[in-house]
Amino acid sequence: MTEPRHSKGGPLARSAMAYVLAGGRGSRLMELTDRRAKPAVYFGGKSRIIDFALSNAINSGIRRIGVATQYKAHSLIRHLNRGWNFLRPERNESFDILPASQRISEDMWYRGTADAVYQNLDIIDGTGVEYMVILAGDHIYKMDYELMLKQHVEQNADVTIGCLEVPRMEATGFGVMHVDEQDRIVAFVEKPKDPPGIPGNPEMALASMGIYVFSMKFLTEELNRDANDPNSSRDFGKDIIPHIVKHGKAVAHRFPASCVRSEHEKESYWRDVGTVDAYWEANIDLTDVVPALDLYDQEWPIWTFAEITPPAKFVHDAEGRRGTAISSLVSGGCVVSGATAKHSLLYTGVRINSYSSVENAVILPYVEVGRSAQLKNVVIDRGVIIPEGLVVGEDPELDAKRFRRTDKGICLITQPMIDKLKL
């Protein structure tokens, strides 16, 4: 079979736009999103969460990208401007940051995910793209969107929806696709108590990844129709997709069919790091000898803002005062001075001073850990100054009084929490 190509020739991705919905509040990440949107939260030692969706788009061959922002977007916009400004109009490329700006009405911000696209249709129309790939900006995964575009065209679908296969009773927190034997979606159920199983595999269900492929012409018609419906909440999952399932052709695209894996990755990796526990676990998993997510895959690099920093440094070599890191990721600009890091991620510019130890720690940029501190099972927000001798991870009751402690025993530490200790 001849591979689908867009009307000008070449891969479909060259005639597609990736539109990233990055306005999420991310309230389940607690204080980590007090000053930043969830897509702007750090991940993996030097990246931000949104870098995964954007890198997937670039690596898939998509050269027109839009990012819709809304909630506490300053750090996100700054990151995008610094790290993603290499796309050039003279090469038929574009990168547009699209904050909610009351462009349609003076009293209306983005009312839902569909509205975040509808309000910018005039900007999108100016790019001349034929296909639209709608993406969530807050998940960790590697995926070739070109393969999803090909399925969309081959099956002549109105919408193609990226789906995860999950154990059926674990799908109650997702939008779930009820499909027939050809993976055509016959019903879309939002957070069902009894999710429908997959034909031939009834113990598994197809959960929506929040990834949608449309032809631009069809999407424009649907968004205009929805905008004129007074009962709509202007949301893809609640309004647009159920309408297409009922009146058009909606098809499921199974994630393993386009998941990108290196030779070291055994599973199709996808994570929603939407809680402190999930965020900590996904980061700490990267310290495994062979982690489930390979960040070292040069064939599918994760692009980001590459901050200019000096190399990481380890100093002192006396008993009890030896700069060491064991099964840890240590970023540029870090100084481990007579201290020990074990199964930890040290983001850019972290300094750990003498006689201290950190274990199972996710330490965001420019944290300073004072002398003789002992920290275990922690997430430390950017720029926090840990006082000398602080002990976290040994007394659950004391930790819960001073910091945000999860049910699984992970302590989130921010500077305001540290400041209260000094009162």
From TrEMBL:
Transmembrane segments: none annotated. It comes from the Bacteria. One of its GO terms (molecular function) is glucose-1-phosphate adenylyltransferase activity. Keywords: ATP-binding, Carbohydrate metabolism, Glycogen biosynthesis, Glycogen metabolism, Nucleotide-binding, Nucleotidyltransferase, Transferase. Alpha-D-glucose 1-phosphate binds at residues 110, 175, 190-191, 208. CDD domains: ADP_Glucose_PP, LbH_G1P_AT_C. InterPro entries: ADP-Glc_PPase (IPR011831), ADP_Glu_pyroP_CS (IPR005836), GlgC_bac (IPR023049), GlmU/GlgC-like_hexapep (IPR056818), NTP_transferase_dom (IPR005835), Nucleotide-diphossugar_trans (IPR029044), Trimer_LpxA-like_sf (IPR011004). Pathway: Glycan biosynthesis; glycogen biosynthesis. Residues 310-413 form the Glucose-1-phosphate adenylyltransferase/Bifunctional protein GlmU-like C-terminal hexapeptide domain. It catalyses: alpha-D-glucose 1-phosphate + ATP + H(+) = ADP-alpha-D-glucose + diphosphate. GO terms for biological process: glycogen biosynthetic process. The keyword Magnesium does not apply. PANTHER family: GLUCOSE-1-PHOSPHATE ADENYLYLTRANSFERASE, GLUCOSE-1-PHOSPHATE ADENYLYLTRANSFERASE-RELATED. Homotetramer. Involved in the biosynthesis of ADP-glucose, a building block required for the elongation reactions to produce glycogen. Catalyzes the reaction between ATP and alpha-D-glucose 1-phosphate (G1P) to produce pyrophosphate and ADP-Glc. This is Glucose-1-phosphate adenylyltransferase. The lineage of its organism: Bacteria, Pseudomonadati, Pseudomonadota, Alphaproteobacteria, Hyphomicrobiales.
